[in-house]
Every structure is written in C-alpha cells, then in structure tokens.
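User: Sequence recovery, please. Input:
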C-alpha cells in the first residue's frame, strides 16, 4: 500500500460509470509524455493516468487525455495544451504560463483547473483569464485546492464550487500567489531529444 492506493481505488470506482473513460496509459506512454513536458508529473496525477484512465473521468469537465490526439469529446491533451502555452524563443509577450503547471480539466470559457507538478502536495490552481486586469496575468490565477488529494476528495463528495448552483454558491476563491514566480521560458529543446535522467524532478513518484 502506498499513500495513494485508497484515492486511486475510489477514483476508479467513481469513474467506472463514465462513458468517456479511456484505458489507462502504459508506463512507456507516461515516460514519453514526461519527456515532452520536460518534467515529471505529480505522482498522484501520474497514478491516476496509469491506474484509472487516460482522461474522461474526474470532477466536472473530466480530465483531459494525457497525450495523443483529441479524445472522444474532441479535447486535446494535457501535454499539447501545456506546450501550446510555452512562448516562442525571442517572444516579448507579457503573458506567460507558470512553469510546471499542467492544465488538466477545462471549466469552459477558457478556464482550466491545473496541477502544479513542482509542489509536494500538487497544488491545484484555477486559471480564469476573464479575471485578468490589464497585463497582470497573476490576477487570473486562484487556488482551487491546496493539494491534488484534497481536490479529488472534494470530487468524491460533490462539494466543489463547480457543482453548486450559482445562486446558492458561497465560495471565495483565493488568489494563487505563486503564479508570478515561475514564468515559463522559451522551450530550449525537443522532447524527443531529452535524456530521461535529465528530466527536472518534482516529488518522488509513488504508485505510478
């Protein structure tokens, strides 16, 4: 037993009814996705893709597929959405996506819940571009959950803000202060040329 076994088992049971649930990814596909990203997924997120499914399950909106082409609902992958947000070399755009933060499910209207693969707990930030004021991108980032485990438990209990009737909602989203501390830089190399041993490491992988 590891720290995630109970969550993974509950997640698999809760996801079994989803018509969009895809077969889990192989260890090889996970490694390929991490090479493309240039860093390891948070271990719990990796375990979800390895042991529950390649998207099509989870909180409202469903997890995106990890890699590959569009899924059954025409959603592109986590890897592709992350890479699409890396600025090109020489770009002087004021907009920058935080490094190591992968968009997981879409919330509609260009909103995404994400997982910060650089934190031990796997903080789940919410990106809400409609809240951005001027060129302050940080104003569009909020904390959806303090950890990925907490976020999953909220899904099981159906207590997430996205489950509430807007008229009855009583959620006060807190700004995610780390959003401005890790601006993404231009992609320095092709993922296919990456040495797996040189991938930037987050927390130790368990159950992946």
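Assistant: Recovered sequence (208 residues):
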């Amino acid at each position: 037993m590891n720290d995630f076994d109970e969550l993974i088992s509950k997640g698999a049971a809760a996801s079994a009814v989803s018509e969009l649930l895809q077969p889990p990814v192989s260890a090889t596909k996970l490694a390929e996705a991490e090479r493309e990203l240039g860093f390891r997924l948070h271990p719990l997120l990796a375990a979800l893709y390895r042991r529950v499914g390649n998207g099509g399950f989870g909180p409202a909106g469903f997890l995106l597929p990890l890699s590959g082409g569009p899924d059954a609902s025409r959603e592109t992958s986590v890897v592709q959405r992350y890479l699409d947000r890396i600025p090109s070399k020489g770009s002087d755009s004021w907009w920058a996506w935080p490094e190591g933060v992968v968009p997981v499910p879409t919330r509609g209207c260009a909103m995404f819940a994400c997982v910060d693969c650089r934190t031990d707990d796997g903080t789940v930030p919410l990106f809400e571009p409609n809240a951005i004021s001027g060129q302050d991108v940080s104003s569009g980032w909020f904390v959806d959950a303090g950890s990925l485990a907490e976020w999953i438990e909220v899904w099981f209990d159906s207590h997430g803000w996205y489950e509430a009737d807007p008229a009855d909602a009583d959620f006060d989203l807190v700004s995610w202060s780390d959003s401005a501390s890790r601006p993404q830089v231009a992609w320095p190399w092709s993922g296919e040329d990456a040495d797996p041993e040189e991938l930037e490491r987050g927390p130790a992988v368990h159950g992946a």
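The longest strand covers residues 101-108.
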